[in-house]
Amino acid sequence: MSLLSIRNLRVCAGDKEIVKGVNLDIGEGEVHAIMGPNGSGKSTLLNAIAGHPGLKIESGNVEYKGKDLLKMQPHERARAGIFLAFQHPRDIEGVSLRSFLFASYTAQMAVRFPEKRKISPITFQALLNQKMEELGINSAFADRSVNKGFSGGEKKKAEILQMLVLEPDLVLLDETDAGLDMDAMRVVARGISSLRLGARSFLIITHNFRILDYVKPDFIHVMQSGRITESGDINLVLRIEGEGYAKDK
């Protein structure tokens, strides 16, 4: 049974159709990577799954855990276990990363895991320290305002930390590896590997072949002009490295 099932999804931004009839199934514990030229609709697809209010669903069906995802509000999708790591995370000045993560955790767990909803700040701090240690992040990192003054790599580390704390069932990563140095790349890879042990699923957009060496996706998809034109395994990546993307089908 698919965790996420997409059928003939068409999505518009304004008057322009960006996603033009995508079909995709993601099973529990599977990692899917989408590659393709800029402007091919990859980010729009992820934002549509997450429920971005600026997008219009023209047609198609999306089921998540057997339920109609398109009838759910963005916050309901998040509480149902869908996590989107943004391409350009926002700054939140005056709110510490620790406070932000505690608020996010309590809001989500109240719905997904009611037995965890009454966690104390002290117990949460122990959990946060454990997750930061797993990622190799200094504990002082959590005292800083969310993304304020963060480098690109630090912003990505903060999102991966959030992902690990919230333990989503479906993780959407929109070029999380873009422009990262090797240290930040390893943090991203550690976070993905840790969640994979819990049979979580991933849909990753990337232009970077290096991250695939760490992540080892089960399926690779090529997206061009709003459609998935080709799917395969890691051998597809090797072909793209040598030949580039195939002509639109």
Summarize the structure.
With about 250 residues, the chain is of the alpha/beta class. It is built from 8 helices and 12 strands. It has a single domain, classed as P-loop containing nucleotide triphosphate hydrolases (Rossmann fold, 3-Layer(aba) Sandwich).
Protein model, in words:
With 249 residues, this protein is of the alpha/beta class. The chain has a single domain (2-210, 222-243), classed as Rossmann fold (3-Layer(aba) Sandwich). It has eight helices and twelve strands. The protein has helices at 42-50, 74-79, 97-112, 121-135, 152-166, 182-196, 209-215, 234-243, and strands at 2-13, 16-27, 31-35, 55-64, 67-68, 82-85, 92-96, 145-146, 170-174, 201-205, 219-224, 227-232. The mean pLDDT is 87.
Task: Note the main attributes of this structure.
249 residues; alpha/beta; 6-stranded mixed sheet; 4-stranded antiparallel sheet; 8 helices; 30% strand; globular
Helix content range:
25-40%
What is the strand tally?
12
The biggest beta sheet reads: 6 strands, mixed
- The CATH architecture name reads 3-Layer(aba) Sandwich
Radius of gyration from the alpha-carbon trace, in angstroms:
18 Å
